[in-house]
Write the structure tokens for this entry.
Amino acid sequence: MSPNLFRVVAAVSLVPFPAALVSQPAPRTILAIGAHAGDMELTAGQLLIKQRKKGDRVVILHMTLGEGGNPKMAPAAYGAQKRREALAADSVIGAESIFAPYRDGELPNDEAARRYVANVIRQVKPSFIITHWQKSIHKDHSTTSLLVQDAVLLASLPGVVTGTPAHRGIRGIWYAENWEDAEDFQPFISVDVSEEREQWRQAVTKYEFVGGSISSFRYLEYYDALAVVRGAVAGKSRAVSFNIDAFGKRRVLDSLP
């Protein structure tokens, strides 16, 4: 897996190339897989917006609606609300929405769920996957991470039959920074999202819980401030950070870079 999707390469030339001759990267597909509707929009939404503006296809798979998160509403009613909110938020991002058939708090780590995610991967054909870090205080988050890691392998094996041909084009899994997934998380990669703040705020505030009327946790302020903190470390106005698997951090060089 490539350890860096958005590496900036600085080059100095005595004679600049005309803009028309500078090749642009081919559009890619990014699949963000969240345990609950709202997870990926909050943690990775600014990156998804940036890549969508660059012409990439963006798809968000919601493993559950997070329908158990409102103590004032029945799960069925809140689930219907979360679905509407997800569609509205993802529309602002420019993302396609997929809703898995699983219930909040009951996401299973079993063969059927792994094959479900593998089949979505085969259908969407992503170049990159963004999901939760594997260590979390929330069961659904850690389960989603484990399912994704196994599903990537299953999706690549022609002998695994899901009704869709195998897909081997995944260049990396990136793990988003989430306040509930903080254990051992390392902000290994940071991406400049200095221009994406307002569109991101428009997207995530489609969710009622982000505004603070359902949960006492200040989601909007936390992730807004986190982008400033990560940006300060990265030398940018704003940034979002991701971890990758340990083997992806290994590099082989002929000499000092």
About this structure: The beta strands are 29-36, 57-64, 96-99, 128-132, 172-176, 189-192, 239-243. The two ends are 20 Å apart (CA to CA). Residues 27-246 form a domain with the Rossmann fold fold (CATH 3.40.50.10320). Confidence is low (pLDDT under 50) at residues 1-22.
